[in-house]
Amino acid sequence: MVMKLPERATQPAMYFIGVTTSQSSIMKLFPLWAKELGLQGAVLKGIDIEIHAPASVYREVVAFIKNDPLSLGALVTTHKIDLYEACKDMFEYLDPYAELFGELSSISKNDGRLEGHAKDPISSGLSMEAFIPPQFWKDHGGEVFIMGAGGSARAIAAYLFNPKKAHNMPSRLYVSNRTTPRLLRMKEIMQEINPQIHAEYIHSPEPTINDEILSRLKPYSLVVNATGLGKDRPGSPLTDACSFPLHSLVWELNYRGDLKFMHQALAQKEAKHLHVEDGWLYFIHGWTQVIAQVFHVEIDPETFARIESISHSFRRGSA
After folding, report:
1. Considering the chain, what is the average pLDDT of its residues?
2. Residue 22 maps to which CATH number?
3. Among 110, 160, 162, 143, which Cα is nearest to 294's?
4. How high is the pLDDT of residue 316?
5. Predicted local distance difference test score (pLDDT) of residue 238
6. What is the pLDDT of residue 230?
7. pLDDT for position 1
8. Which 3 state secondary structure label does DSSP give 233?
9. Does residue 103 share a domain with residue 181?
10. Do 18 and 77 reside in the same domain of the chain?
């Protein structure tokens, strides 16, 4: 894949920095949302970059946005950590979440300053509040298993194990990842956020290792696919021989792709009494958080409800 920069913007432009951006529903949803939000003339353009691209590629993209007056910002997926590490010195402001997690999902401008934000802690929290019962951890004492140690995984763990939730948090955290550097960095981040938690960080180059961890989980746990597998790359972090814990919540962060992980969970849904959630609401929260930042608009609960309704209608119509 060869990254191609867009041409200089001639109208207010926001960018989507990803891997297969043309396949995302946001390309058709953005005009509908922009109309609802009163963003006259605003356009969304995709910038596709190969996974773990050279630092020079990320710097070229950020420099283009920074120096083009009508390029107002971007949402970043997949590349959140790599882009931060390559470009953090190019920003006049990085929010505390971006600096703590070492990743950013939002690029925006404010009075000439280039700003970077990590919005996942907010969007993942809002998404979980929609499907995790209010006293779930307090009532059942379940655990959390997150496969992947990137930006979304860090944000989810930070939300669940916020010390302010001490009366209602999972009893243990398991995190697995195919490579060790991000795993070790996530361990450092979580020790800073809450050094009191019981946690295991497991190197899992093979899906059978994830199967084994899954088999150890208590009933009423949460299992999360934060690897990206099933969207930009096919497959699942588990094998078809996996066994989900009873009465558990299963969260597939993707909403498009082969979604193999989600289908593995759905195959056991009835027998194991599982609640299976895809990444659609997470997608909506993630995008609305960044759009609000880029265009400096407020999206209050009533406006979000209208955007959610528009999005669900679109999804039903395109299914």
Report:
1. 95
2. 3.40.50.10860
3. 110
4. 82
5. 98
6. 78
7. 60
8. strand
9. no
10. yes
